[in-house]
Design a protein that fits this description.
CATH architecture of the largest domain in chain B: Orthogonal Bundle
CATH topology of the largest domain in chain A: MetI-like fold
Number of domains of chain B: 2
CATH superfamily of the largest domain in chain A: MetI-like
CATH topology of the largest domain in chain B: MetI-like fold
Radius of gyration of chain A: 29 Å
Shape of chain A: flat
Distance between the termini of chain A: 45 Å
Helix content of chain B: 55-70%
Strand content of chain B: under 5%
Strand order of the largest sheet of chain A: 1-2
Number of helices of chain B: 22
Helix content of chain A: over 70%
Distance between the termini of chain B: 50 Å
Largest sheet of chain B: 3 strands, antiparallel
Shape of chain B: flat
Order of helices and strands of chain A: HHHEEHHHHHHHHH
Number of strands of chain A: 2
Order of helices and strands of chain B: HHEHHHHHHHEHHEHHHHHHHHHHH
Strand content of chain A: under 5%
Number of strands of chain B: 3
Largest interface: A-B, 86 and 82 residues
Number of domains of chain A: 3
Oligomer: heterodimer
CATH architecture of the largest domain in chain A: Orthogonal Bundle
Strand order of the largest sheet of chain B: 2-1-3
Amino acid sequence: MQQTQVEGKPKNSAIANALAVDESGAPKIERRARLVDDSIGYLLLACGVISVLTTIGILYVLGSESLAFFTSVNQQDNVFATIAGNLANFLGTAEWQPGGGKFGIWPLLEATLMTSFVAMLVAIPLGLGAAIYIAEYATPRVRASLKPILEVLAGIPTVVYGYFAITFMTPLLQGIFGIDTVQFYNTASAGLVMGIMILPTIASMSEDALTAVPRALREASYGLGATKFETISKVVLPAALSGILAAAIVGISRAVGETMIVALAAGAGPRFTMPPNFFVGAETITGHIARISGGDLSYGSIDYQSLFALGLALFFFTLALNTLSRWVSNKFREAYQ
Amino acid sequence: MTATTNTPSRAVERIKNEESFLSGLRNRHLQGTIWKYFFQAAIVIGIVALLTLMFNVVNRIVGLVAVREIVDPATLADGRDLESLSAEELARIYSEYRLTGANTDGGRVFLRDNVIGRDTFQANPQAPMSQLLPNADLPPEVGALTFSELQPADTQVILAAAAGQITLLDAVITEIVGREILEAWTFTESTFNRAAIEERVASNEDWAGAQLEWRSWLNPQFLTTRMTTIAADSGVRAALLGSLVTIALTVLIAFPLGVGTAIYLEEYSTGNSWFENFIETNIRNLAGVPSIIYGLLGLAIFVRALASITQGRTIISAALTMALLILPVIIINAQEALRAVPPSIREASFGLGATRWQTIWNQVLPAAMPGILTGTILGMSRAIGETAPLIIIGAATFIATDPGLTSRFTVLPIQIYTWTKDPRQGFSEIAAATIVLLLIVLLLFNATAIILRQRFRRKLSG
């Protein structure tokens, strides 16, 4: 095929072009220069790069402000000693008092872990139970009506769950355990409602894992005389375990990063309790970030920078959980083909 | 499978002893039934939670309230309509009112915060009034005074000259006139416990003059009026408009970027370049980043670093942040929609001589569009309920004016958050009304998504 210049030809002679032959008698096929076609690929690539830039932006913003934070409080002789000292305090002490220059993440982390723990206590058994019911027991008609309900539950904004925690769950807990035991702001109420919020996520991911288990496995199990429950518990669940574990880890990750429920219901003010008391108020990492930035925060202040250090911790925590979830799901996946 | 080694012999023994086998079978079935009920219970608990949540909200939007007029508007202006009063008269009413009660500044704080502006004042607190309010026509003896020298009479003159009739009317209506909600009851309490409520209203000495009446918190006035500091008078107009403008802008930014990325990954990607894999993994990771982190990103980049473009804590900053947040949702759904377009359509188009882009634009995209739109609406549903990032980038909690692109703003979920936290009477109820409004907006979005999905199915099958 011979490449010729387009400019050298008369413009509106498409038929002449189509009939043209080169010296050897073969039809002449030309590639016309197409501005849109040639450049659009790069334009689309640029769109894709935006998502990479977002990640770089997150890392840069969190990293640089955290660095500023770790170098500016409790300064020592040299930069490295300051950073090492602050990092040790940040990860190793249990007092968070920005006013007093004390930045130990543990009170916030403890509250985060407490609310997430309660949430998982609700969401894993109920989510998995719901998934098993939908995947194994429900008739197609029941399944068709149950799945939208879970979707609705998953689509409700988290701030609405926060309202639910304050106006329903907290009074309910106070009614059961006594108003003296249960403070108005408490981690149990936030955690329980968070569990309901995460339930659909775990249910729908687990259900996908369960339905991916081939029918032949179930039928083989029935053929050996197992009951339905034995088939589910001894054949289907182990086969779907990787997907279920992945769902649970994603659930934890969502609980750790959830903000609005804890900002409304868990309490304001970092508090370290040992042993953990679920009925008193405590502030989670996300709750603290939301409360502090809600006021008029001046840029460049220690308070402002400390939020980014917390954000960085939260980012790595959830990233690790999400990566672990994908790893578990790929590593332990049983391939049936 | 370690347990199988000794089972055959055991099984043989069991079958020999048929009675014990049957009783074992009964136990196994019983166990199965018990677990089945547990699984069923899990579903039932989920449904009950959803119903309780909905009921808990709806129960609060209609109910009895005990109300009392704080100051009768008729006594303020000798029976004239407040809106017909001049700026001078309103300034007099406001200034005089501010000399009694808890706040005896004669309107100076209002003058500083709403007329001069706190930033202008703090830049130069010792300046004379004529310098702080260069556009106002002040008498020279008043204009020479500094803020700390102002007497109530001076404040009144300045307010009349500089504040404008609308601002003053607003202040008088929100701060002086108005109906005070003493207590609000839920619908169930109001219906089944009416006698006790009446008894309580009648017997409470602090509530003299209080009346009991039914009130629907979600009413047309709630949707169309501006925000005030009193729950019963407050409207959600600014937040509703704020939400709609933010969402529109978010989609305008995120839709082309998301669909572009999806087309690149599905139609241009070779599938095995490390860079494309990197973009894919990156998008999956971004989808799992907590929304509050996007708020921090938006705060540092859009609000601070790009302040010259976005003007700081504005709707533009909010929309840019939200666009990044929903980008992974749009991309992942658009990828799925593109993947669902059968390869034969592309091959036919190529076979007719179309270029790659002509194939995508004329064949693939129209076929994938309903799926792409469904994903976009999912992203919009997420964005309209998202609260945390907007708190971080600094959505205002009190906005009386309609939002503009570069003004401070509030949205529905922010209002729900603020009003839920507010312990004063009536705020929990207007938070509930706002929740219902937000859920209705979400329902409309999702109904659109379902209709699109059905059209998509029909198109593929027909």
